[in-house]
Amino acid sequence: MRTKLDQWLQLPGEERWLLAGLVVLLPAIGIALCLFGVRRTYRLLGGSGRPAPLSAESSEDSSTSAKRLGRLVSIASRRGPYMATCLPQSIALRWLLCRRGMPAEVRIGVRKEHERIHAHAWVELAGQVINDHSAVEAEYAVYREFATRLVRH
């Protein structure tokens, strides 16, 4: 059985650094959400900027890369000292993708179950769900204007 250290050492160097950074970024986003709220946190991380759309020839490579980044965010959240919920994870992933020129969007959805309201966040890139299962939109009523409202002044 491989230990966590063995798994860490088998990652490419860039991914090791990225995971280390995410262990710091995720709790920072969580704190910012508590202190400043969603709108200001989103803006602090460049939520108002929109990168150029993906070209058709690079979309498959971008999707693979985006899913890998999503997996790293999930690993950092599960195995790091801070267990980030879906919103900080999605904001962090969007930030990482946009820094790489990928026009990702955070999606927020809600559903009612046994008289309780449940909310969930995930990231989409070119209409493809990155950090959740592909049918997540069928489970939640998606608030499509989320990103637009966040960046309005």
What share of residues is helical?
A: 40-55%
Query: What's the pLDDT, averaged over the residues?
Result: 84
Largest sheet: number of strands, sense, barrel closure: 4 strands, antiparallel
Number of helices: 6
Give the H and E element order: HHHHEEEHEH
Low-confidence stretches: none
Number of domains: 1
- Side-by-side strand order of the widest sheet: 3-2-1-4
Backbone CA Rg: 16 Å
Strand content: 15-25%
Number of strands: 4
Helix/strand-derived category reads alpha+beta
Categorize the overall geometry.
Answer: globular
Distance between the termini: 52 Å
Task: Tell me what the structure shows.
- It contains 6 helices and 4 strands; from the N terminus they run ααααβββαβα.
- It has 153 residues and is α+β, with helices and mostly antiparallel strands.
- It has one domain (4-151).
- The chain has a 4-stranded antiparallel beta sheet.
- Helix 2 (13-44) packs across helix 3, helix 2 (13-44) packs across helix 4 (86-99) and helix 3 (59-79) packs across helix 4.
- The chain is globular, with a radius of gyration of 16 Å.
- The model has no long low-confidence stretch (mean pLDDT 84).
Topology:
Blueprint: H1 4-10, H2 13-44, H3 59-79, H4 86-99, E1 104-113, E2 116-125, E3 128-129, H5 136-139, E4 141-143, H6 146-151
Antiparallel strand pairs: 1-2, 1-4, 2-3
